[in-house]
Design a protein that fits this description.
With about 240 residues, this protein is an alpha+beta fold. It has 3 domains: about 100 residues, no CATH class; about 35 residues, no CATH class; about 90 residues, no CATH class. Helix content is about 60%, strand content about 15%. It has a 5-stranded antiparallel β-sheet with strand order 4-3-2-1-5. α1 runs antiparallel to α2, α1 packs across α3 and α3 packs across α4. The C terminus is likely disordered.
Length: about 240
């Protein structure tokens, strides 16, 4: 290889390394910005009708204020603020006993609407499942998947009993990397599940980052029976609703 070819190859290699370094530096910021913009657009879309209605009300009373609200970015800011305040208000109400009663009435109403019952009920059960502790095992576990020689992180959604043998089973959702919204549902014998001390947030960070963001230690070999009881005993009891 001639000196000119070596120099050209060296320049190409340095350019590729520099470009990759730039990509890996900007990519996390870009993904974070995309997620933030997506969430803000959802909040803005939900609140914009209210801010537009507010502008129409103020137009005959305070035209200058209404003209200021007419700017798209102002309407978006007002809409986002209204939705955040509304969510906080709903959260505050649901922590009270009267809020729980209202939620129960709303649930019964939704159960009388055929299509809404299927969608609302499924989402409600899923969210409720992840807010509660599974019986006898930690939420974040390791299972043998896709082969006995490998383990993967899964989230226990519930435990139940084998009708024929009486053996304890666990329904384990296995998220995929880097998109945890898709994955596999595995039914695993409870004695084949390895409990971990990881929280759901730590598990999600581990999955989304492809293992780059991981705890210093992980329970890999211990059985779910002994470790699961020891770990779940450490968890604080559920907070009772405020009066």
């Amino acid at each position: 290889m001639s000196p000119a070819d070596k120099a050209k190859k060296s320049i190409t290699a340095r350019f590729s390394q520099t470009l990759l370094a730039g990509i890996f530096t900007v990519l996390p910021l870009w993904i974070t910005a995309m997620i933030i913009v997506f969430v803000l657009e959802l909040l803005s879309g939900a609140g914009n009708p209210i801010s537009h209605w507010l502008m129409l009300i103020l137009r005959p009373i305070a035209p200058d204020v209404a003209a200021s609200i007419a700017h798209p970015w102002v309407q978006s800011a007002i809409g986002i603020s209204i939705v955040i305040i509304a969510l906080c208000l709903v959260g505050w109400i649901t922590r009270r006993v009267i809020g729980r009663k209202l939620i129960e009435l709303f649930d019964r109403l939704m159960n009388h609407i055929p299509i809404a019952k299927m969608i609302y009920g499924t989402v409600k059960k899923l969210l409720t499942t992840f807010q509660q502790k599974p019986d006898g095992v930690q939420r974040v576990v390791l299972i043998d998947f896709p082969s006995p020689e490998m383990k993967t992180i899964g989230l226990v959604t519930r435990t139940f009993i084998d009708k024929d043998t009486g053996k304890e089973l666990a329904a384990v959702y296995v998220p995929t990397t880097p998109n945890p919204t898709s994955g596999y549902l595995e039914i695993v014998p409870l004695d084949k599940v390895t409990s971990t001390t990881m929280t759901v947030d730590e598990a999600m960070s581990f999955i989304v980052s492809g293992g780059a963001v991981a705890p210093e230690e992980m329970n890999y070999e211990k059985s779910a029976v002994t470790l699961g009881r020891r770990v779940t005993d450490k968890q604080p009891p559920d907070t009772p609703p405020e009066a």
